[in-house]
Amino acid sequence: MTSTTGNTPAAPATAAETPAVAAAREDLAALRRQQAFAAADEAALDGLIAVRPPERRPRPDPVWDDAPVLVHEVVGERYRRLVLATDTIATTALAGQFLMITVPPAEGERILLPRPMAIHRRHPEQGTVEVIYGVAGRGTTALADVAVGESLLVTGPLGRGFEFPDAAEPDAALPTAAHPRPARTALMIGRGVGVCAIMGSVEDAARLGIAATVVLSGRSRANLIGPADCAELGARVIPVTDDDGSSALPALGGRLRGLFGSAPPDVILVCGAGVLARLAAELGAEWGVPVQVSLEAHMACGLGYCHGCAAPVATDPAVEGPLVCVDGPVFDAVLPGG
Amino acid sequence: MTSTTGNTPAAPATAAETPAVAAAREDLAALRRQQAFAAADEAALDGLIAVRPPERRPRPDPVWDDAPVLVHEVVGERYRRLVLATDTIATTALAGQFLMITVPPAEGERILLPRPMAIHRRHPEQGTVEVIYGVAGRGTTALADVAVGESLLVTGPLGRGFEFPDAAEPDAALPTAAHPRPARTALMIGRGVGVCAIMGSVEDAARLGIAATVVLSGRSRANLIGPADCAELGARVIPVTDDDGSSALPALGGRLRGLFGSAPPDVILVCGAGVLARLAAELGAEWGVPVQVSLEAHMACGLGYCHGCAAPVATDPAVEGPLVCVDGPVFDAVLPGG
Amino acid sequence: MTIAPPRPTTDARRAFFDARPADSAAVDLSVRIGSLTLANPVMPASGCFGPSLGRLIPVAELGAVVTKTVFGTPRGGNAAHRLTEIRAGMVNSVGIPSRGAAGYLASQHPLYLALGVPVIVSVGGHRPGEYAPVVQGLRGAGDAYELNVSCPNLDRHGTDIGSDPDAIGTVVRLVRQETDKPLIVKLPVLVSSIADCAQAAEAAGADAVCVANSIPALPLTADTRSPVLGNVIGGLSGPNIRPIVLRLVWLAARAVDIPVIACGGIETADDALDYFSVGARAVQVGTASFGRPFAMVDITRALQERCLAAGAADIGELIELWRA
Amino acid sequence: MTIAPPRPTTDARRAFFDARPADSAAVDLSVRIGSLTLANPVMPASGCFGPSLGRLIPVAELGAVVTKTVFGTPRGGNAAHRLTEIRAGMVNSVGIPSRGAAGYLASQHPLYLALGVPVIVSVGGHRPGEYAPVVQGLRGAGDAYELNVSCPNLDRHGTDIGSDPDAIGTVVRLVRQETDKPLIVKLPVLVSSIADCAQAAEAAGADAVCVANSIPALPLTADTRSPVLGNVIGGLSGPNIRPIVLRLVWLAARAVDIPVIACGGIETADDALDYFSVGARAVQVGTASFGRPFAMVDITRALQERCLAAGAADIGELIELWRA
Ligand SMILES: Cc1cc2nc3c(=O)[nH]c(=O)nc-3n(C[C@H](O)[C@H](O)[C@H](O)COP(=O)(O)OP(=O)(O)OC[C@H]3O[C@@H](n4cnc5c(N)ncnc54)[C@H](O)[C@@H]3O)c2cc1C
Ligand SMILES: Cc1cc2nc3c(=O)[nH]c(=O)nc-3n(C[C@H](O)[C@H](O)[C@H](O)COP(=O)(O)OP(=O)(O)OC[C@H]3O[C@@H](n4cnc5c(N)ncnc54)[C@H](O)[C@@H]3O)c2cc1C
Ligand SMILES: Cc1cc2nc3c(=O)[nH]c(=O)nc-3n(C[C@H](O)[C@H](O)[C@H](O)COP(=O)(O)O)c2cc1C
Ligand SMILES: Cc1cc2nc3c(=O)[nH]c(=O)nc-3n(C[C@H](O)[C@H](O)[C@H](O)COP(=O)(O)O)c2cc1C
Ligand code: FES
Ligand code: FES
């Protein structure tokens, strides 16, 4: 394959351009924007991710369950909400943990790998959990076909979630670098379905009396996940969206600096975009507060044995790096050299 | 794998037999019956099949078409009827020709090969054809999901159909072995969906003033295909079913010998079971009348180029035998040595 | 009996013929296979085409046609069933019935010639020495030869000729002595090193390699777990083999300078572009034609339209555009 | 902060553990691999199991467990993405991260031992001579060794060791000098002759062959047609490879007297029985465990129930019954 164009962009439109040609040009432009976005998001995580220090309390044992689907409804324009009856998981899951959801076979469509999904809400009294997901590809398309009343095979709770500094032992010790002071205020930043990963911490904050400020980011107001949950949980919400420009990084960074500059939160939790993780890490460095970020990776087992979910952490090539499913999905986000 | 049972049948039931064991035994017995039936049906065709002499008139050119589904309904307990709008095919198809129906992709189920289906009825005035099919495996299961208003990709008309002796040139010549006398009466025998292959000839008989007697065979009255079509076309119907024993070969043979012994039909057309083809060939030999049988084979192209549909005709191993899709599906059925 | 006067009828096939796009001077889809230039890089896979398809699709819009494999002497085919479809794909064990070179020349070649595009004759053998006599027997008929070496080598207890680089070299060298026409070697999937096989073909004088044939498989019935196919083993084809063959094409294209023709599970222009993006220079369509006889022509037309729309002069440029 | 008193909770996993069927003296599912007798013929495929699964399924009901492949020295894994799912199946290129024999002994083996079933340690290398030192380094740990020869042979420009019968023989002979324990050779799919490979393993002293590893494939993204996997190439696994591997198992079982362990796309007892019916003596389950962690135990239980229900004393008899 030889080419004479090399890296030059598509030729500019001419007067004689047909609608098909115009459409193809727009497709190409959209592809370029998407490529640029993905590249920026990946680059933003570069050098930022570190494995969190060992947990002080053991994680709950994961189980698998046949979880009846109690609710399966469209949320906003782009998402779907599942309420699953799964008693043990609802009772034991920690904030920021996730499930592996096996997509049932239907009409010959066979989905082999379970899909990782954050536990958006836990309702231990009812023995239910909520999951909110976007239809992305084959697996989530097939998942969207599951009817209320059917059961989903789920495995969980999995992974290491978000942890408030010393929340587990609120009156343990005086704050040090390794043991920062117990959180009294927290800033959570979620974008898109990434909001789901942080909602468990909003629940915890409500339970623990931590004042939570939650940035909910999305394409438009109609597509924000979590406003109702935050209202129910008594968290302050800062909605930011692409359509009015409020989600843009400089705008959001300025706003947060304005809000918290004089009284920084005790911890920042973030999920949903690499660039937001970097912003959070920058704010954390400025304010001297820890930042935790929840990451995604392609997964097969969710249990640490398939070695499929390498975290974006540079390590000695002879040593395996951390795994998102067991060492994460929540990691520390620390500015390189910071 | 060693075995101590060899060819002995499953051990007889004991008093301590659990329901699961009893069910498994019944499954095994059903499998054996089915195996025996399939073996008998295949053996019945042994040496029976011969390629018909060359056609006197060219076949219609096949086309492919996007045929809107006008009707798609359940027929009896086991079958489904499709009415397809496909003008050229409806206008040109000859009796006993077939279609290749491409099963559209749905929900990720991808059916690669089109499925051969007889043209049950032609309605050239409306530009429609009817197909009746049974749900057998993956392809027909997916086909059953197609909704009225969708279109099916069909290719046809294909293959060589049934021909009444000299019907094409009714006043051509005096009857000889090669040119039997023009048909005035015809016996058609169809079983299950095999009825569909012969219904075009029932249509032709009505048009040509040939007196048609049609044996419709099936498991039960509710499962017979064709009684209404035959009534519309003015054909005499002999319904025979498994549940009252009337479809059993000796019973049916006796009945037909009784009906036709003194005045045999001019031709016998048969489709739907190897053992019925052999019965027809026996009757044909007794009565000195030609017998034509329509066969099935796994097919990919339907056009004679994939060589996938070998007909059950023994030939020199260095020479390719006839193909069901172009040399058939209708063949002569002649008793070996007869 | 009255014969109704024919009335004009309509069907989608007719509309498809009529929709032939104008050739655009702005797009060059042509591809060279040795001394032969094809107007575009789309052709059928051997065994998945016959002249009778000319009644259903505008074959003249293809880059070439490829015949079913021709053997030296007549052969019958395998016992029924010769093909089936399972979830993994289509499986066939037709057994390559053949009328031999003489039979092909007499009854088939005139029909292929009438199609008006280059004819690539597929040639088979069961020993490395059997290919050259077939080509000789074809007496110059055909514009190029595709050497189907995915055949058990009876000289080596049935291992495929095409899995043995030495045997591939022997086949090509012997055939080269019979003809100056372009030679394409069609390789099997189950080989230890596709690079070695492709290089053996190139070194012996082949003008292209075709990667690949179907993948040997054993389909069983669900009830008694007996083989579905009369021949027990058949070749798996269709979209599920595509990721396997994509890797082979990628490796072969890195190993040789001659063009690689991709074959395996291509159904759409997107599938073809997948192969082009890993280095293929032409594509063959097999199984897809059974369900959608117009699939090949669709691909040819779509390749032209995509290049036009993107302002690319050829497929190479189109691929560069995504990667920019 | 008040901590709610734990209340009893329920889940399907618990019910599954409780449903353990009674062993029946009437059915013998045991299978011998050299000197080792497994209680039943069902085990995980290497890389698709870890001790952490013991929390989710009653591992004691399996015939054995198989470790992820252990290399001699520590290795990291491949760049992300390391796995994906496409229509054809799962594709992984984990890159076999390994802590080396010493690391395995220290951190992994105790967890495997605690599972209470025979432990088959999978061993890898990138040169035929690299396997024996790993086995030596394992210092007798493990009940048997599975030699994963589906690794590029760095001595022969990257062709898989397992595609070369001579290299297979070398690996087995060298390892045999280190251990008397049963040796299983796990063969790749892309080989010129699976029979030659299996016979090479048998002749060199292997006690079983495992057929087969995943099939190398190249998944591309839909938009820019770039490789999905960090390593470009990955191994295709899952149900669509079953018909391909069934043929290989059939050929291998006819070629050797040692047991053939089937591996490829097994999800259910029916799939396992397909393999048994073409000559396999044991089965490994890989991809299926990700979606249904209990798949292996389900298969073990179903095999026992089917034999019981059909009045068959073992799987061989069960198969004979259908064919009767
Ligand atoms: C810990 C964790 C929590 C998650 N929580 C949520 C959530 O709450 N809501 C939600 O909508 N999504 C969530 N995701 C992402 C979700 O798993 C993917 O959107 C989903 O797997 C896409 O599957 P697909 O078959 O539709 O897409 P395809 O692109 O067809 O998937 C192909 C393969 O890639 C994998 N894959 C593709 N995209 C992703 C991704 N972003 N993350 C992980 N694997 C991916 C799939 O699992 C599959 O194996 C989470 C991911 C992780 C790792
Ligand atoms: C000329 C002809 C006319 C036919 N007419 C009718 C009809 O009018 N009504 C009807 O119900 N059936 C008819 N059949 C049979 C029908 O084609 C099969 O039932 C159908 O192909 C089964 O497909 P499946 O995917 O449901 O079954 P599967 O068993 O899943 O099919 C697997 C493969 O085997 C092939 N196959 C399986 N059974 C048959 C069979 N009996 N004949 C041909 N191929 C088979 C399929 O096409 C497919 O390639 C006809 C067959 C032929 C050859
Ligand atoms: C019915 C059938 C017959 C085939 N006959 C031949 C043949 O004669 N010679 C040959 O080289 N390949 C033959 N093939 C293989 C195809 O040419 C092609 O390599 C294979 O089917 C993979 O391509 P696909 O997935 O597009 O079908 C045949 C394939 C099928 C399905
Ligand atoms: C995530 C993953 C990791 C694997 N790792 C190994 C490995 O370390 N060693 C090995 O011999 N095979 C490995 N395999 C191959 C499997 O053992 C098995 O041979 C293959 O997946 C086919 O079986 P399946 O279709 O049941 O998955 C791995 C497969 C997967 C999916
Ligand atoms: S998903 Fe398997 S190790 Fe993380
Ligand atoms: S179906 Fe292709 S030759 Fe008959």
From TrEMBL, chains A, B:
Database matches in PROSITE patterns: FAD_FR
Protein origin, superkingdom:
Bacteria
SUPFAM superfamilies according to UniProt: Ferredoxin reductase-like, C-terminal NADP-linked domain, Riboflavin synthase domain-like
Stretches assigned to the FAD-binding FR-type domain: 62-164
Instruction: List the GO molecular function terms.
Output: oxidoreductase activity
* InterPro entries associated with the record: Dihydroorotate_DH_ele_sf (IPR037117), Dihydroorotate_DH_Fe-S-bd (IPR019480), FAD-bd_FR_type (IPR017927), FNR_nucleotide-bd (IPR039261), PyrK_electron_transfer (IPR050353), Riboflavin_synthase-like_b-brl (IPR017938)
- What is the protein's given name? Dihydroorotate oxidase electron transfer subunit
From TrEMBL, chains C, D:
Q: Does the keyword Cytoplasm apply?
A: yes
> Pathway it acts in?
Pyrimidine metabolism; UMP biosynthesis via de novo pathway
Q: What is its EC number?
A: 1.3.-.-
Q: What GO CC terms are in its UniProt record?
A: cytoplasm
Could you name the active-site residues? 151
* GO terms, molecular function: dihydroorotate dehydrogenase activity
Q: Which reaction does it catalyse?
A: (S)-dihydroorotate + A = orotate + AH2
| EC class name | oxidoreductase
Residues the entry annotates as binding substrate? 68, 92-96, 148, 213-214
Which controlled-vocabulary keywords does the entry list?
Cytoplasm, Flavoprotein, FMN, Oxidoreductase, Pyrimidine biosynthesis
User: What domain of life does the native source organism fall in?
Assistant: Bacteria
Question: What is the annotated localization of this protein?
Answer: Cytoplasm
Instruction: Describe the location of the Dihydroorotate dehydrogenase catalytic domain by residue ranges.
Output: 29-305
Give the residues the record marks as binding FMN: 46, 68-69, 148, 186, 238, 264-265, 286-287
Spell out the Pfam families in the cross-references: DHO_dh
Listed cofactors: FMN
* Record flagged with keyword Oxidoreductase: yes
Major localization class: cytoplasm
How the cofactor is bound: the record states:
Binds 1 FMN per subunit.
Listed GO biological process terms = 'de novo' pyrimidine nucleobase biosynthetic process; 'de novo' UMP biosynthetic process
The Swiss-Prot or TrEMBL record describes its family as follows: Belongs to the dihydroorotate dehydrogenase family. Type 1 subfamily.
The free-text function statement in the UniProt record for this protein reads: Catalyzes the conversion of dihydroorotate to orotate.
Matching entries from HAMAP family are given as: DHO_dh_type1
Q: What is this protein called?
A: Dihydroorotate dehydrogenase
Which organism is the protein's source?
Cryobacterium cheniae
Gene symbol here is pyrD
